[in-house]
Design goal:
Four copies of one chain form a homotetramer. With about 220 residues, chain A is an alpha+beta fold. Chain A has one domain: 3-Layer(aba) Sandwich (L-fuculose-1-phosphate Aldolase), CATH 3.40.225.10. Chain A is about 45% helix and about 15% strand. Chain A is built from seven helices and eight strands; from the N terminus they run H-E-E-E-E-H-E-H-H-E-H-E-E-H-H. Chain A has an eight-stranded mixed β-sheet. In chain A, strand 7 and strand 8 form a beta hairpin. Chain A is globular and about 55 Å long. Chains in contact: A-B, A-C, B-D, C-D. At the A-B interface, helix 6 and helix 7 of A face helix 3 and helix 6 of B.
Chain lengths: ~220, ~220, ~220, ~220
């Protein structure tokens, strides 16, 4: 592929960002060995930057990130892309507002996923970030569009940027890769807290109207 | 605002302390991403120093801490202050002995909070630091004085420097910011230990008289 | 022993690899103090490289790794080899495709082992790496071939590279030491996730045919 | 006190060891803030070296360790010694084979302690290090010899180097400070593993004869 001049600088930045963001997955212990990845859409192009498959987090560099088109075909890079590339490409093709996707098998979220049980919204922090429960997507085998379709169909019916894929793990989305990583970090945090809460009884529900009120404020007011 | 000369050095010290104390929140894994904060009263002035909103812990510096008055209005700083500023300002206005406030969503304490269940005092370390159970405050939405009022009313009826706000998280107070951070660290530690204890049975209660005896000794004798 | 010239370079490499791989055991908190070890077969020779007994992970170097024959007799090294040497030598003698062995008492896997309960395959990541449940081997005392024989007999009837030895801990195998370490890391990860899942209900089973499909793809397609 | 010349070098070494060993308590997360300590007997003298009270682990140095006699009186040092000094001095006075004592409130061990429930010996690693169950000592208030007496009376009837003091935490002993730290690390590790095992069923018991066999081998053969 010949990359036009105007995208060269964008690509350099995205490669550095995607590579560096994997350090948040290890910092928060969302991944072991090589089992999780971050990708970013190249804005204005049918392209994405993603982790190479089976490479240790310690060995990631901007240069070994893989550039693919949105059919998952490699456009730049010597390494095979993540085995989740097809699923993430599907998400970018069908959800145009999504600029970043993250996949992990983080412990507590994956435990809920293995029971096919959504995480109920019983924390103000969950209302803020997820706007309600974190939903469960279908069981789907790798190898065709089943996982991507499951992610997209589940997230379209939800305010949540995270979906628990049954028996599998978590996919999160965001306006950019950093936002998707944040959603992955928050997803595991609330999955763990609600799990711990449920071990000794039932959390108090938060009325739907107050969930919405918290979600609206957080999405519009929080941060700089 | 024109800060008078005599407060300049105090402010420099407090900015450095408040910034640095956030490292204890990450060290003990009481917070993820940007979801927790420390503040300190400026002694002798109706002012407080607090974390900026939505800024990563790695990026905190003495310079980007925000100086607010006790109505939560920014007096110095280019960044918006923590979204918990109003609640913490309320605490400083109504509890004059408080010099520091900390807010976290630490996992085990927040799990108790989501069940609206106080943590029973079944550890000598809890008697030492908290003087009894750690109480639960009301469910309260962000945006007015509800959270601050809930904190103050709950803590006024307790020896505990920590309150579990229902469905939300923990607020702790102390004579200074370091003492409030210590209370936040100890609160999560005892929340976890008592949770674990309860998973396999009932902890042995400690008689009230001995709780008081431990509390009095620890507050007066422990340390240098 | 006189080591022939052609094996000198191989040994240097293996000593460095085996020493360094112990850092993965501590990174993922699979071991405490000195309670776990890695070994590697010397390809083409009846020799193995293994951790010295009772030495802290901080103090491991390529030079203090111990070279033993496959009866567990020391061939090079001033220190006594791991007390698990006999068990691991037995594995190398009876499973010629094995190039690396790891032993840990990692928390969650050992908890399953103490109940003599195999870990059911309810995660796609488990199907990928283990091809089904992680089986339990017999209770066996240290001091003769009981442990080695228990490992070999259990793994011969399974696709899993990990075995939970009853009341004891985990042994994993791989084509080389790095693969065995990966299996140990993944074993603890799935042991923890399935434990957490089971605490609040029953995970959804994955049909056997789909377990096999996932296993075949992962063993043949994943990575570079 | 005038310290005789021959003990000067011993003291220098012990101060460095005791100070450094606290890093193992934080490494294995057995302690938070300042809530745990290590001491060592000065061999051949009625003296002990112990952590100062309420000082952060980051701030410990060989120089600020406190030298006390075995009545707990300070002999060298500008800081007050640990509030556990009296209990540890009692142990040194009554158990002449003990060269090191450690105290922590590590989470899982303290959870068993709060239920006054001994940890059953269902792991080979427990048989190795503890020779049977880890026993529970009485509830005792700080301030007189109650804690020390409870530790000594409980450990005299046991092969275990660790005792769970009811509602309080763990005390461990060893031939030197390093051995006592090892026992504290192992105690928390087995407390956690047996807790996790018990959450989903009953661990398989290990027959008493085999516990003894494992204990005898480990105490006499393991390590260098």
């Amino acid at each position: 592929m010949t990359v036009t001049a105007d995208v060269t600088e964008t690509l350099r930045t995205l490669r550095a960002q995607v590579s560096a963001l994997h350090a948040e997955l290890t910092r928060y212990e969302l991944v072991v060995w090589t089992a999780g990845n971050v990708s970013a859409r190249v804005p204005g192009h049918d392209l994405m930057v993603i982790k190479p498959s089976g490479v240790s987090y310690d060995d990631l560099t901007p240069e070994n990130m893989v550039l693919c088109d949105l059919d998952g075909e490699v456009k730049e890079g010597d390494l095979a892309p993540s085995s989740d590339t097809a699923a993430q490409a599907y998400v970018y093709r069908h959800l145009p507002h999504v600029g970043g996707v993250v996949h992990t098998h983080s412990t507590y979220a994956t435990a809920w996923a293995s029971r096919a049980e959504p995480i109920p919204c019983v924390l103000t922090m969950m209302a803020d970030e997820f706007g309600g429960e974190i939903p469960v997507g279908p069981f789907a085998l790798i190898g065709d569009d089943s996982i991507g379709r499951g992610i997209v169909e589940t997230l379209r019916g939800s305010r949540s940027p995270a979906v628990l894929m049954q028996n599998h793990g978590v996919f999160t989305i965001g306006k950019d890769a950093r936002a998707a990583v944040k959603a992955a970090v928050m997803c595991e945090d609330v999955a763990r807290t609600v799990h711990v809460a449920r071990q000794l009884g039932e959390p108090v529900p938060i009325p739907e109207q107050q969930v919405t009120s918290l979600f609206d404020r957080y999405q519009n007011v929080y941060g700089q």
